Amino acid sequence: MRSVRLWVSLGILLLANIVVSNLLFAAAQPTTVTLPYDVFKEQVAQGNVTSVTTTGDSITGVTKTPVKETSTGVSATHFTTQRPSFADDSLEPLLEQHGVTINAKPENPPPPFWETLLFSFGPTLLIVLGVLYIFRRIGSAGGTGGLLGSFGQSRARLYNPETPGTTFADVAGIDEVKQELEELVDFLRDPQKYERLGGMVPKGVLLIGPPGTGKTLLARAVAGEAKVPFFSQSASEFVEAIVGVGASRVRDLFMKARQSAPAIIFIDELDAIGRSRSAGLRIGGNDEQEQTLNQILTEMDGFEPGKGVIVLAATNRADVLDQALLRPGRFDRRVTLQPPDRRGRAAILKIHSAKVPLAPDVDLDEIAGATPGLVGADLRNLVNEAALGAARKGETTVTSADFFEAIDRILLGTERHLVLSPGDRERIAYHESGHALLGLLVPGADPVRKVTIIPHGGALGVTVSNPIADRVNYGEDYLRARIVGALGGRAAEQLVYTTVSTGAANDLQQVTQIAHEMVVRWGMSPKIGPLAFAEDGAGSGFGLARPYSEATARDVDTEVKRIADECYADALRLLTEHRTQLDNLARAVLKDDSLDEDQILAAAGIPRPPASPTSDSGAPLEGAGAR
Question: With a threshold of 0.85, does the pTM exceed it?
Answer without folding.
Answer: no
